[in-house]
Model the fold of this input.
Amino acid sequence: MQNLAENKEILRKRLLEKRRNIQNKDEKDNTIAKQFLLLDDYINAEVILLYVSTNEEVSTKRVIANAVEAGKKVFVPICIGQHRMEFYEFTSFSELTVSKFGILEPNPKGSEKLEIFGDVLCVVPAISFDAERYRLGYGGGYYDRFIESYDDKIKTIGLCYEEMLSEILPRENHDKRVDMIITDGKEFK
Done:
């Protein structure tokens, strides 16, 4: 019998393949971004933590651009040792570099590091979310550790294509759920 970690890995591969075949991605990305930008939590936020999306993820680029234009402080993660992240201020897409994981990150030498995590809105990546707002991430545990450390100081939101939602996902004790999920069809609070 397979253990939970193996089951998650098998599911992860299956769902990644499904996400690679999403139809009308640009339209769905725009719908999700519009819903996000209308949230009171976003409108009232001064500091937003956002990952820079890959081509297959729900795009965060419009949200990042809107937040910067609105004068909000935007911070994006850098993965550091021992499955931890630090967040550095986003200045422009042109100043991002490709990390060893193939994701875009800011240069920590040229950016301000976020040190105080009070009243912060954090957009959390995932492959899938379930009805209880748990997520299936990429397997590194970076966001679970981060949420564990700052759970009482941040509000977490997941962005997901409706067809990528799952009824229930396998979870372990260390898995953390988000406060809200925004999709191209509905939002779960």
